[in-house]
Known about the structure:
The protein has 13 helices and 18 strands. The protein is α/β, with parallel strands linked by helices. The strands form four sheets. Strands 5-4-13-14-15-12-16 form a seven-stranded mixed β-sheet. Strands 7-2-1-11-18-17 form a six-stranded mixed β-sheet. The chain has a three-stranded antiparallel β-sheet with strand order 8-9-10. Helix 1 packs parallel to helix 5 (105-113) and helix 1 runs parallel beside helix 10 (297-311). The chain is globular.
Amino acid sequence: MSQQHAVVLGGGIGGLTTAVALHRRAWHVTVLERAPSIEPVGAGIALAPNGQRALDVIGLGDEIRALAAWQGSGGLRTPRGRWLTRLDAEAVTERFGGPLVLLHRADLIARLAAELPPDRLRTGSPAALVAPGAPGAARAVVRTPDGDLHADLVVAADGIRSATRRVLFPEHPGPRYSGFTTWRFVAPTPGRPFAPHETWGRGSLWGAHPLADGRVYAYAAALAPAGATAPDEHAELRRRFADWHDPVPALLGAAARLPVLRHDVHHMTSPLPAFHRGRVVLVGDAAHAMAPMLAQGGNQAIEDGIVLAHHADPAADLRSALAAYTADRLPRTGAVVRRAAGVARVVALRSRPAVALRTAALALTSQLMPDAMLRGFTRIADWNPPGDPYASEGPTRTT
């Protein structure tokens, strides 16, 4: 029997995780990335225990856990600095079986890419789905500048604006604007230690978390018209957040000459009817773009790749495998999308009475149920991958 060929469209976190997992399942994998290199445009990413357990399957979980920099407590604050809820790092590990790990996206991308043979990743290679094929019949066809590729399986990890999704489900409305725009940057530490925190203001939020290399990952979000930009995004951040509690002003100052990324947040609150059609399957933002309020976008993309590879044994019936993948992933990711959208609605409150009521409710809940913040991640962070990890077997060195 000849080796099955999987073509992965996109070399981001979801695409590379899927490629590595399929490679370990003895698929011949080709990753096509449009960008000239896989150096990611991004800042930090939070990997929750569920994402770490997914990475255990391909042998990277412990390596990622070793990057945990958060010790002690953190939590949710008001712009004046009052703590509303507190979250302890040890309690997270005890309840969910792992820490919360913040790392630079570049580090995760590099670790994933290193698990693939070098010739399996093609950068500077835009691609488009020409034909989705059908299990048991015609293979899928992907068009590249170097000619057409015929694939037994196509994995569309082509992001929130996925052209593949539009081909498979042309009637679906796709992502819609959430009302929020976001800023992200990585800056030097402001000089003195601080507790990791997220701060909710009026229709806005700020977060800052230490990284293992001594730098700080900071992010912000605010309600804004879709497509709005500022001539100077540093100045825009200072205008919105410079009078918030320490260390916000210091971090803004440290970022003055560093790149700041700004992106509008779109999410898919209308779920797709399925995550597959023919021989093509969607993973990550292409399948279930979500608001970042739960920091689960990357984690869910990693889960996708591991679950897909679990079902897609090369010797198995592909039609059944892809149907099982949709059955596993669509309900779970849909629930996370809805929960993230719900948190976004709470953050979006702007009137002073509504914000005061929110603040009082959060403080009271924290007093009555000290573990309320942890409970919010039940059935998210406690997820386990299907089957047993097979990373100990090592990569399948086939061609």
